[in-house]
Design goal:
The protein is an alpha/beta fold. It has 19 helices and nine strands. Strands 1-3-4-2-5-6-7 form a seven-stranded mixed sheet, with helices on both faces. A two-stranded antiparallel ribbon has the order 8-9. Helix 5 (170-186) packs across helix 6 (210-227) and helix 16 runs parallel beside helix 19 (672-702). It starts with a helix and ends with a helix. Bound molecules: guanosine-5'-diphosphate and magnesium ion. Guanosine-5'-diphosphate (GDP) is lined by residues 68-74, 86-88, 202-203, 252-254. Residues 1-703 are cytoplasmic. Cooperates with the reticulon proteins RTN1 and RTN2 and the tubule-shaping DP1 family protein YOP1 to generate and maintain the structure of the tubular endoplasmic reticulum network. Has GTPase activity, which is required for its function in ER organization. GTP binds at residues 66-73. It is a multi-pass membrane protein.
Length: 703
């Protein structure tokens, strides 16, 4: 038991040591090296410092500058428990390595106890050269100071007490430059950002009170400010529009070590006493960039300073915000896409679960974005959020389309089934279609509506118009099919009826046969269309067509009827048929008496008389069989175009010079030559009949 405790204590100690060594290993990195290059792994360094904590905006940046060997690094190491190189640490009293050094701390040295909520502080130590050297080094000094102003909240200006009042101390010369450039950079300082200039007076003996030292420095600064050449619009701006000033005196580190440490600890209090008046990290000083954006911002700033470009800080911050929000958005989108297919696949068929899953995926992605990106400039963050939302919707639109397509197919199948299985006696096609259509549209719009309501669709206009066009096309096809079936039904009756009637009339023609044929033609059409007639020559085929469309269908039916009439007439009235019709008429009169009994011839004169009458009777219809005219002697003409407009090669020959089609004219049944031919045959045949009749008398006599 005892042994166990010993062991346990050891382990705890060991763990404590581990922790201690981890948090105190604050070897600084050279953020900007002697060659003025920005540290390429700065971001990694930050990540190491932070681990996987979410720091957000809760971090601070502080810089120091002042002449070489004025004890800056020494102060920082005591104040922040950092590990910057100092002269003392160097074996030979050579200069420390030039550049801007960066260290991280959570452990500010304070007099008060700070248990939790220690902020992450990043400390920049500017390691310059002695003021004695000129030229190139002065250039670095100036750039470093500008950089420090651009990226930090608090700038410590480190100076010896005895330097105060001696303008030659290059701190003040440098501050003048910094003021000047700062003013040209920020102009009127509309966004009210400020930097705290914290003057730390070293080796403050105490003979001259701090207040008079600070008055003296303040006067000097105000004088510098008044002498600045100010850009247009900033003539009236004051030092205090851009900077807050604080003064602190520290005891001599080597002569009054304890006092020095005590003074530093008191200074440290001001970095941790959040919410008090003496707290140094005012929100107004913060650049409002999350830590991961800060590195990029700092690098951009350095790049601009180094290359002497205009250092437009607000623009820099926007650029960083753009880059970062973009990065965060695409990360969130990537994650969304990687999960998408798998989580959507099983829900594709049912609206409710599908939409709630889509909403969940979307919300997850957006809140991932919000979590990190909302810390950046608000308008940049919102703008990118909008476009991320758009990208998500684009991705989702594929699924929505697929869903709607399947839905539409299902609704369409139902509609067709309903129409085809309706009780035809009580429900018309048109009514059934109208009811079905309303149902399809409302079901469909309801689905689209719920996608829209949940903001899964950016716009429903496009999708609705796409689907309604397709739906309209399908309805048209359905109507066409219904119409086709109806027309076929009409055709099946109408065509043979017309044929029969015409042939019947023509086979026993009267002189007014064409009047009869045309009367019959119209009445046959009419009786076949009786169920569609709404008024004289106006029809509704009951598939939901417009008046014009109905009229066009009726016209086509007339064309069909006319074509039937045309072919029937011309096929039937060939030379032989006409000859035999004429002969029948002749024989009816010649051979039979009015009672219909065969005549018995007694004398040849009798035969000649009858022959003349019979022949005249027969030929009474010859003209109407060779030319279709009414009893008023008007040539019959179709009232619709019955010849197909066919422009193919072979038909060209039928066109006259005006290009009018003349393949055949309805009324013209026989040509003059054909008429001769008919008459010849007719005469020959009736002559034979006459001869036979005469011979029959002779035969009777010889008996
Ligand atoms: P830096 O170049 O400004 O960073 O100065 P260092 O921190 O490297 O210190 C330069 C020298 O000043 C070292 O030898 C220190 O021992 C010494 N030093 C540090 N602090 C003080 C101080 O408060 N008073 C005086 N007189 N010397 C100091
Ligand atoms: Mg130093």
């Amino acid at each position: 038991y005892y042994w166990f405790h010993l062991k346990r204590a050891n382990i705890i100690n060991w763990l404590k040591n581990q922790h201690f060594s981890m948090t105190t290993d604050r070897s600084a990195i050279q953020l900007i090296d002697e060659e003025k290059a920005f540290h390429q792994s700065a971001l990694q360094y930050f990540q190491q410092c932070i681990g996987n904590r979410d720091v957000g905006l809760d971090y601070h940046v502080i810089s120091v500058f002042g002449s070489q060997s004025s004890g800056k690094s020494t102060l920082l190491n005591v104040l922040f428990n950092t590990n910057f190189d100092t002269m003392d640490a160097q074996v030979k009293r050579q200069q420390t390595t030039k550049g801007i050094w960066l260290a991280h701390t959570e452990e500010v040295n304070t007099t008060i106890e700070v248990s939790s909520d220690r902020p992450d502080i990043f400390v920049l130590d500017v390691e310059g050269s002695d003021g004695s050297e000129r030229g190139e080094d002065q250039d670095f000094e100036r750039k470093a100071a500008l950089f420090a102003i651009a990226v930090s909240e608090v700038l410590i200006v480190n100076m010896w007490e005895q330097q105060i009042g001696l303008y030659q101390g290059n701190n003040m010369a440098l501050l003048k430059t910094v003021f000047e450039v700062n003013l040209s950079l920020f102009g009127k300082n509309d966004n009210n950002h400020k930097v705290l200039l914290l003057f730390v007076i070293r080796d403050h003996v105490g003979v001259t009170p701090l207040s008079s030292l600070s008055d003296s420095v303040t006067r000097e600064l105000e004088k510098i400010w008044s002498e600045l050449s100010k850009p247009a619009g900033c003539e009236d701006s004051t030092l205090y529009d851009f900077f807050d000033l604080q003064f602190i005196g520290l005891a001599h580190k080597l002569l009054q070590e304890d006092k020095f440490i005590q003074d530093v600890k008191k200074l440290g209090d001001s970095f941790v006493m959040k919410g008090t008046d003496s707290y140094y990290f005012k929100p107004q000083y913060h650049h409002r960039l999350p830590l991961d954006g800060w590195t990029m911002y700092a690098e951009n700033c350095w790049d601009q300073i180094e290359h002497n470009k205009d250092l437009d800080l607000p623009t820099q911050q926007i650029l960083v915000a753009r880059f970062k929000t973009e990065e965060i958005a695409s990360e969130a989108l990537e994650e969304f896409i990687s999960k998408y297919d798998e989580s959507i696949a099983p829900l594709k068929g049912s609206l409710g679960p599908l939409t709630s899953q889509l909403v969940a995926l979307k919300e997850e992605c957006l809140s991932k974005y919000d979590e990190q990106a909302s810390r950046y400039a608000k308008n940049v963050y919102m703008e990118k959020r909008e476009s991320l939302n758009g990208e998500l919707n684009t991705h989702i639109s594929g699924t929505i389309n697929e869903f709607l397509e399947t839905l539409m197919e299902k609704l369409w199948d139902n509609l067709r089934l309903e129409i085809s299985s309706r009780d035809k006696a009580s429900t018309s096609f048109v009514d059934s279609l109208a009811t079905g259509r309303t149902k399809v549209e409302s079901d469909f719009n309801e689905s689209v509506g719920s996608f829209k309501k949940l903001e899964l669709l950016s716009s429903d206009k496009e999708i609705i118009s796409k689907f309604s066009n397709e739906f309209e096309e399908k309805i048209k096809q359905l109507r066409d099919a219904e119409l086709k079936a109806k027309i076929n039904g009409i055709k099946k009756n109408l065509v043979p009826e017309l044929k029969d009637h015409v042939i019947h009339l023509l086979s026993h023609p009267s002189k007014n046969v064409w009047d009869d044929i045309m009367d019959d033609f119209e009445s046959t059409i009419q009786s076949n269309l009786s169920s569609y007639e709404i008024s004289k020559a106006e029809y509704d085929f009951k598939v939901g067509l417009s008046d014009d469309e109905n009229a066009a269908v009726y016209k086509n039916i007339r064309i069909l009827a006319w074509r039937t009439l045309d072919t029937t007439v011309h096929d039937y009235l060939k030379i032989d048929t006409i000859v035999s019709i004429l002969r029948d008429r002749f024989e009816d009169v010649f051979r039979y008496d009015t009672e219909g009994s065969p005549k018995l011839w007694k004398a040849e004169e009798e035969i000649d008389g009858a022959f003349r009458i019979a022949k005249e009777h027969a030929l009474e219809v010859f003209e109407v069989l060779s030319l279709a005219v009414t009893s008023d002697n008007v040539e019959i003409m179709p009232d619709v175009p019955i010849v197909e407009e066919d422009s193919s090669e072979g038909n060209e020959i039928y066109r006259d010079n005006e290009g009018i089609f003349h393949s055949r004219r309805f009324a013209h049944i026989l040509t003059e030559l054909q008429k001769e031919n008919v008459l010849d045959q007719f005469r020959r045949q009736i002559n034979i009949t006459v001869l036979d009749s005469k011979r029959s008398i002779i035969t009777t006599r010889t008996h």
